[in-house]
Structure formats: C-alpha cells, structure tokens
Amino acid sequence: MDRFDIAPVSLDTPLALPPATADPARAGFPLIASLAPVVGALALWAITGSPFALVFAVLGPIVAIGSMLDARRSARRLRRRASAERRRLLDELVAEIGRRHDLERAAAWQRSPSSRRLLDRPEHPAWREAAPPTLVLGRGAAASALRVDGAPVDAGDREVLLAAARLDDAPMSVDAGAGVGFVGELHLARAAARASVVQFAHQAHPQRFAIEVAEGTEGAHWEWLHALPHRGGRTRAGLVVVEPTDGRHRPLEPTTLAPQGERRPAMVVAVARTASQLPPGLGTIVTMRAPDAAVVRRHQGTAEMQLAPSLLGIAEAAGWAHSLAAVAERAGLGDRSNELPRRLELGELQGRPDAVHDRSSLAVTVGQVAGGALELDLARRGPHALVAGTTGSGKSEFLLAWIVALSAAHPPARVSFLLVDFKGGAAFEPVRGLPHVTGIVTDLDDSEAERAVLSLRAELTHRETVLARAGARDIAGLDDGVDLARLVIVVDEFQAMIERFPDLGAVIGDIAARGRSLGVHLVLASQRPNGVVREQVTANCPIRVSLRVLQRSDSEAVVGTASASEIPSDLPGRGVVDPGDGCPVLFHSAIATPAAIAEVGERAAGFPRARRTWLDPLPGRIAPDAVHGLLGAPRPAAAPGHRMIEQEADGAGIGFGVVDEPERQRRSLARWAPRRDGGLLVLGMPGSGRSTALAAIERASIERAAIGSGGAARVVAEPRQAGDSASGALGLAGPSSAVWDRLVAAQAAVRGGAAPPALVVLDDLDTRFRAWPEEYRHAAFAMVESLVREGRGRGVAVVASAADLHALGGGLREAFGARLLLRHATRSDLVQSGGRGELWRAVDGAGTGQWHGRRVQVIEATPVAEPAAPAVPPLRLRPELPYAVVAAAPRAAAAVITEVGRTAILLVAGGESAVRAAVAAHPLDASPPVIVGDSEAWAASWSLTAALREEAGLIVHGGAGEYRALVRSRELPPLLDDGAGQCWLLEPGRGVRRAIWPNQRNH
To answer: Any idea where the FtsK domain is (predicted)?
Structure first.
C-alpha cells in the first residue's frame, strides 16, 4: 500500500489460525476378531459333540460388526467436537484481532494526529528542524502490521486473514515533500488543503520553514496564513499554497523561500477544479467527490485509494493560526524576540525605591521579556518555583538576582531566605551579609545540611502556632504587629541534595503541600529536574523557569516547550519562563552586580536580622554553667564560684547532657529517668568520654538528692567529699575487695530491709572483673544484673560504662533498659550497639554521642571522690583460741606462725594421729597450738577437720580451693585483693573476714 502503510506497533505474542480439524481414521472390519469365536466353537463341538457349541460361532461376527459401528459413531462425535472447538478458537482469534487493531489504530492516530485533533491542542506543536515526513489527509483502510500465521482451511479462514491484514479507520498519510494537489468542488478542495497546511505548520519549525502563498493565488481564502509564525525572510525551504485565480496553472516563480538559482520549495499544496489546472510534478492528487469521500492517486501509478478526507473551515484554521502564533511568541520565536538584550543588570530594571511591608505579595522584577519587564510573584502566582538550567546557562546568577530583588523590595521582617547550595557553596556567598539571609547550607558539611533541612519541620509547626494564636487563616491575614516573615528556601542543585539525603524528599514534599498558607516558598533549581523532583512538589510549582538545557525533554518537562533546549550556548541568562499563568515566554535574566548587592545591603543595614530557622550544632564541650544558655533559658542566680546543673525533684530524671533536636528547632536537657528507662549503659570506645558521662550523672544525682532532702527547688551542689554519702550514690571503683564488698552490701540491701543506695555507678563494666577469679567474676556479673533488675523496684538506679558490648552476657545486656552511645570506632559498631548509623561521626570528641536517637553532648564534670576503702587489719591470733591453717605452702606458713609466737604443728596426709598426739602433749598453760596443713592434708583428716571447725579459728592462706577444703561452704568468701598478702579469718561467733598475713605486713 506504499506510503499509506502505517508503522508497526508492539503487539504482544504472535497470532495463528487454529489448526485444521483432522478426520479420525475409518474403522475397518475386525476379521480376526470375528473368526476367532468361530474357530473356538468348532473346536468345542469337535471335542464335546454338542450342537449347542456351534451357537458361539455366530456371536463372533455379531460382536465384530457392533464394534465397527460403535467406532464409527465415536469418530463422528470427535469430529463434531473438534469442529466446535476450532470455531471457538476462531471466534477468539477474531476478537483478539479486533482488540489489537484498536490498539494499533490508537497508536497510529497518536503518532499522526488528525487536523481536527490539532485544533484542540495548538499549545503543543511538534516542531522539528527536519522536513515534515508525512501529512495526514484523512482516514481510510491501511495495511496493518498485524500478522496471523497458519494456512487457511476454508473461505472463513481467508476472510479472517484479509481482515487481519487491513486496518480500517486509520490515518492516511502522504509524502510531504512530493507535493499534494486537491481537485474538485473548490470549497471542498480548499477545506482539505487547509487541513494539510495545518498539518505542515504543526510539524515544521518556524525558524527553519516558512509558509507562503504563490503569486497569482486567490488570496481571500488564504489570508489566515499570514497569522502563522512561519514567515519568510529567514528560511530557505517551506510550503507554497497555489490556487490560480484564472483557472490556469503557471510555473512557480522564485520567492523568498527559494531565491534565484536555488531549487524549488520543499512542498507545494495546490487547489484547482480539475487535475489539468494543477502545477505539473505533484506527487499526490486528491480528487474530492463528497465531504466524506475522496480518491487518492499517486504519481507512480499505484492503485487508487479511498479515504474520508480531513476538512477545515477558514474560521477554524484562522483561530488555530493565531493560537500557534501566540505559542511561538511565548517561546521566543516571534518577531519581538530580537528585542531581548544579551546582558541585563538588575539596576537597569525599574525597581521599587522603598521596601514595602505588604505580606500578600512578593512581586519583583527579575528580567525582561519581549515588550516589557518580567515580574515574578511567589506569593500570588506561586507558592513555589522550579528552575532548570545546565552548566553555564546562568542559573545561579538568576537565583542570585531574584534574591537581591526580593531583598531590595522587602525588609527582613517580611521576607527571609534559607539558601542551600550543593555545588560548593560559592554561589550565594555574595548575599551572605544581607540581614534577610538566615543562613547558607552547603554540601561541605553533611551534618549541618541535614540539621538545617530537618529544622524546617519545626519551622512549619512554629508558623502554624503563630497563625493559630493570631486567628489568621494564612500569613497574608496577619496584623503588622505579628513577627512572622515569609521564608523563601532556595536550593541550588536540588538533585545533588536528594541524592545525598534521600529522606529529605519527604520534608520538601511536606513544605510544598503546606507552604502557601504558612508563608514558606520553595525555589528548587537543578540541571535536570525531570524525574528528580516529585510530582507532589512539581504540582505546587506553577512558576517554571528553564534556562538553556541540553535535552528537549528537559525543557518540555519544565516549561511545556522545547524552546529552552534551542537557546545558544553563548547566551547565558536567556531562558523560557512560565510566570504562573501557563503561558511560557522567552526572557533574559538580570544580573546582580556587586554594586547592586552592596546598595541593597546598605539600605537594609538598619533592619534587625531575620529569625534563624535552625540552631547551631552542639559545641564539643559544655560546662555546667553554660547549659542554660544552650537551652535558651535564663540562668538562675547562683553564689559566686558555684557551678550548677538545673535539676528537679519531680521524677523527670537526671539531667546529664544537652540533646540536639533540629526537627523541633530546639535543644533540651538529656534526662535519664531510672524508674522509666531502667538501668543505663554508657557505651563508647576508649577516649569517648565514658567516665565523664558517669561523673555528670553522679553529680546530677547529688543535686537531685539535695533537692529531695529539703533544699530549695533549684540548688547548687558542691563537690562531694570523701566519705560523704549524702547523695546515696555507690561508686564501684577502687580495690577489688572494696568493689566486691559494695556489690554484696548493695545486693543485700535490695533484697533485705536496709535502705539501698540511690545510685550505683560502675565504670568499665566489661573489664572491671576481668582479672578476678572465674567464680568471683561470674558472681559479680550476676550481682550487677540483680541490682539492675531487682533494684529498679526499690528505687536503685544503676549506671555502668563499657567499651565492648559483647563482653557482657546476654542477660546483663538486656537488663539495661537505656543506652547512652558515645563515639564508636566504626559505623557498624554503633549500629550493632543500637545506634543510628547516620549520626556516626569519626571526628566526634569526648562526650559526643546519641541519646534516644538524637545527638547529645555530655556536660563536663569531674569524677566524684570515692570514700576510701576500709583498711584490712593484720592477722592477730587470740591466745586462748586454737587455730587451723590451710595454706598452699604449709611449711612456710608454719614458719610464719612460729615467728609470731605460737606453736605450729604441721599436718600431712595420713598424719592425723600424730597431730592429735602432739596436741595432747602440748602444755596446758600455754596457748593452744596452731595446726597447719595443705588442702589435701585437711581433706584426708576429715574427723580432725570437723572437730576444729566447731571450736577453733580457721585461717585460709590461699585460694577458693583451700577455703572449701577447710570451711566446707559453697558460699564465696570476701574477695581478696590480688598481691596484697591477704587471707581469710573465721573465728567462732564471727563471720569470715579479711586479714593481712603476718610476713607480708612485716615487709
């Protein structure tokens, strides 16, 4: 079908005719089956001699004939079923062909819209620099791209194949360059020609192609062509409309479309009553027979084609031409586009001499369009704007000029700026000093950028509160006395910010949705906003600006036209803008020179700076007397030289640091409430400030204890002196023996009736018991876990620190309900400890960490002096009391006993009788002897051991093994300090206690 064929579309899986129904094989006569009973019956008769046996011979043929008839009946049934199934498949195939034809037809009309459809959408021309390939003349039958496999069986199959190969009601197009002639009744021929010209104007770029009327053409019917933007003078090829007034054709004369010596125009559209009146050489001739019927004949002699032509009236074409001209003018393709300057300074524009205080408008002049100045108003035409532009297009200069223009027109009390630059931070440096600028966020500091944007949520809440208190629906309805400025958030390289912080997209979307009434406006700039900015945001960005972009699709996505992709690279500042009315126009941006910026700064010097939308990061060190300033609260009066942290005895918790809450635009006191949170575990690598955190918590506990004991509502806490227990704090530091004793006493108090300590502090929990004997180490961890779990109900708060979380048992780890996470070596270590990986910083100093998922800085504090451990007394033997000594080195121990003036009897394995004899021979007036042996000797002398255990003093100079050999108790004795020369002493009526072994004390 030559040029009437349409391009193929994607058509799912291939189609095929259902296979032909195969006839089942004809059933033959079962000769052997019929003869077998006959032979059997004859044999039976020959054997038995009974004539009744011959009856069976008749059954064979009867059964064979019945089987043959039944097989033929089954074959007919199968044939009918197969035919019905094929008809069903054929009906489904016909339905599928129709469905795919509908899709193919819709795709064809989408690619090649009719002239009638083009009239409904003049604002979306498909201009291209290449010559228009085809023109749609109307609708008719075209060759379909659909193919159906399989061989036809009958006439019905052949009809299905013919129907599949033909696409009815399809666009019928012809080659645009070969020329088209329309003949017949002139009113019909002109209407069809007008439709073809509209097709050409829809596709041909006005700067590359022109449309003119040939000399001698009837002009009254073609005056509407002068409204099109396709005018001559700048182009070499185009379209010429020919309609001889005298009914005779004449050779085409050179025009501005084809100067002397150059080839003829690219396309001719001619109108005549008969074909003989048309210019020669036309590729296609359309003969109009009726308004809905025409015949198309090609010059090559192909078969004639029938179609329903596209027809347009003069009024319709003229209205469309004027709309298309307006589109071209807005895109800078009209005659007035040459009025734009190549460079424009902001001072050359007519600005506003004095700052205005109107909250309802942010109108400023930022550039020039053809015929006047370009004014943008975020308040009335916004609330938000989208800006596109590739590198070198002048995008940053445009943003800077807009900021300066707004600063010149409005005081800081009416408009303020938060500037975000994610391409180094230099773009907005010239305006940093303006009082309107609350801050500049760059990609050089990730944490600062994230904090600033997260603070915007709190800014929205703050504005909602102000509006609610004032009883206003939006910011424009506030009284002049209410302090609330419009906030313009300008983001340069929005795509880079979202790639760095994907979660911030939700924050920007929230601002886009609620910003209008709250007075928060977004100006989002990116090299390619298409696909980067969410639809939720773009739907609220009626102001669209596109400076030069590289891709046609980027320009169309921003301003609805491809004109921004055609801007020359040597015109920075030139772009297309939709000021919010849906009509994009070409403009040239102004430049804010240093002089203009300095002038604005001088005029605004007397205004107070705009309210900042976010707080500075927490300092690396916080002294106790600086807490109130960081929290934004007045510092209470205090005695000179005193340091204080504000605490309250209301159960709110122990304050130990300052928490950064950027999403709430505030800082708060980090409080640990033991009854609510449970035990506190401070985790961090060496040097992260764990000991400082424990000291801060202990000193805060002292303040709370002072308040609870009847002090003022806010008190000043002096450093605790050694031995002072007013705070009720129990520090588990010092010698191992002292730590053990305090643990045992605390556990006994929790489980008994004594008053337990209010706070138990244990530094380096993961390594504190590492050097202890295994039994004591396990017992110590068990007591700590008991204090954490059981002490909570008795008002005991337990805080401990550790560097290695995994060094603690699972039960102990789970016992602590709260964690203060200081600096960790790696991000993964922090996450495994339960922290937020995004808050990890390798450069964090001591005391910096996380508390309940937020950044915290611990308040500096010096460790509280612990009371000195009680001195261990020397070993003193009562003269009237016999003693039994178990020692790892019994001979040396016996020598020491002798040195202190007591008689020592050495016990060896199997020597119990000798010892008894020596004891019996000992003078009665002398002090009882001291029996010394090792654990094996005492274990072998079990009767002697049992006797002495009741009436003698027991001394253990060794380890737990020696202790159990003599004392025979499962309870652990008090822990001995390693290397301190201590021993255990048990005397009748007294519990086990420590003592200094004599020879060690003498040294």
So the answer is: 371-556
